[in-house]
Structures are given as structure tokens and as C-alpha cells.
Design goal:
The C terminus is likely disordered. It contains five helices and 24 strands.
Amino acid sequence: MLRLTAILLTILMLTGCGSDDAQSVSTKIVEYHSPVDYDIVLAGNFGEPRPWHFHGGIDVKTGNAVGKKIFSIADGYVSRITVNKYGFGNAIYVTHPDGNTSVYCHLKSFADKYEQLFQRNGWRDTLDFRFSPDKMPVKGGDLIALSGNTGHSTGPHLHLEIHNTETWVMRDPMQFLGRFIADTVAPQAHSFMAIPVAGEGLFNGGQTKQTFGFGQPDVKRQHTTWTISREFTAWGRVGFALWADDYCESTYNHYGVRYTQLLVDGREVFSSDVDSIPLSCTREVNMWGDYDHWRRTHIWYLKSYVEQGMRLPILHTGFERGYVTFDEERPYHLTYILRDFHGNQSRYDFTVQGVSDKRVKPRARRYLLNNYLLYRQCLWPLFSSKRL
């Protein structure tokens, strides 16, 4: 056992398992500011599941107008300016001394001193300028651009991303700008999906995946607890998935959920914390979510277990990878806990009765490594050295 522990600790040290903070990052303190001069309201948040990718930043509303002033969120220097018909459209990159780079996208234009650096030839321009640290210094709060609707944008807004400068890992801008964004509404779960493992599990007597609504009233609250009165049955290994959204009091938009936890009899079997995502893992959104179901319904059920081959460091499980084994004829108490960046929380409880069924034989549970969270992920490189 001691030898196994030593091996795992060695793997942890060699792979930097955990978060991008494991990389060498400057400890220089940087003060962050709002990118706009009005109250921030979000049209989208970080990590929202999209087909083939995660949303890599926050979308700041601009009142459906272009030309709003955009400011650097911190000291640093302008390291890159791009102009493109597609993608980010007009974008400006500011590199900060704390090891992060902020990216401002879909801009109408740049501040005059940056516009003067190049000559535009037309709307089909594709330009890319990069600058050394001493060329374009900027202070937090300096005007750098005007908001727009360029590139792949469906309406005027500011798309703002923050990356680890060294690894280009995408980071949740709420970690830096959360104090400028009001939010007193907890995430809400709409329904869960039960997914029996083929040949190894049953749910409500069936071997196919099934969905069940929570039946919670659509009311925006800071905290809520909801219990499903219906009792379910299961035997063998079953995975679960959740359809849930986060909300804010100031808008009709819905967002991705920052933190999700699944408990069985009070013990955590799965959790997700969407705080940072390596670019090399962004396509794995189609594995975390039920992509086939999304194609039919445009609803994302995010799995509360980890399939073989997934490397997403935001998903945390024990050695059972989040699957729940029902191998005793007794009630199992399952709880989903959802929380946003500001700590607004909701809780959903339901009971599953273990009912023996000869069609499946539950395999023995593997307890040995359950205390080594992220064990499988330690075997994978967590971060991409890929640059834009």
C-alpha cells in the first residue's frame, strides 16, 4: 500500500495534476477592473456546453448596440491585435504580469493609437500583429477598443476571455471579475437521466436510458432544496446525467453551471468545477454531455461520471469513475448540489431502492483507490502548449 501511494504521488508531481496553478505562474499581484463603464449583465458565461466546444469566456451585454467603450481589465501590455471576418472578428489581446492574458473580441474598432498602426483595406481584411512587452504598455482602466458585432457573432456584445499566458488554458473570468457582476439566483436542475451500464445495470426495471423531471417550480431563488417524492428502483451499475442551468436576476438568459456535486448516502461520487479548461480538451464536451440527445432536442444532459478516454481536469471522481453500484436491497439516497461562483446553491434529493434482479450481477466494488481523487487524470497531461 505504501509503495502504491508513493507511485501515485510521483505521478502527481510529474504531471502537475490539479489545476493550471500547478504550472509556474508569476506571483505578481494585479488589480482587476471592469471592462465596461456600466453594470455588467451577462449573455453567456464560461464553460457553457456547445457542440464540439466549451464557451471560452463571458459575453457582456452592450444594450444591443455597438460603440460602447471597452477598457483593459488590468495593467499589462497589448501583445496582439487581430482582424478577421470570422471567429473573434476584431480582437485585442492584453498580457498581464500575473501570468494571464485577456482577450476582447467582436470589436467594432480599436482605440485610435492602435488603429493608426495598420491600414485597413476593407471588410475582408485578415490582419495579425504581435508586439513585444515594451511596445504597447497599458494600465488597467485604459480605453483599448469600442464594442461591436464582428466575426462569428449573432448580435452586438463583448466576448471576453482570460487565458494562462504560458499554457493558453482557458480560465473563468468570474475569478477575476466576479465582484463586478451581481447574482443572487441559484442554479436550477430541470431533470436527471439514468443510464444503466450495458449488461451490468437496470433502472426502473429497464436497461435503456430514461429521463425524469424534478418538477421544481420555475422560481428564481438564492437557495432552494427540492425532493422528488417518487421512488425509483435500480440494480447493478448505473450512471446519471443532469440537465441544469444557472440564472441571474437581471436578465432572461440562462448559463452553464459552475459547480455540480453528486452524493450517494452523503458520500461524494462525482463533482465538476468548471474553473479552467485546456484547449486540448474542449472537444470532449461531446463526451461529457449526451451529444446524441442534444442533436435531437438541443438539451444538454451532462454526465455525472467519467467515460474511458476523457481527460477533462474539471471532472472529479473516485476509482468507480462516478458510476453508482446498487448491490444491496435497501434505499439509496442520492443528492445533487449545484452552486454558482457567488455561492448561490440548490439541492435536489431523490431515493432509489435497490431491488435484486437476476438479469444482471453487480460486479465487486473497487475501494482501494477511491480516496485518490483524479487518479485517472493523473495519467494524462492536463494542459496544452498550443497557442492561438
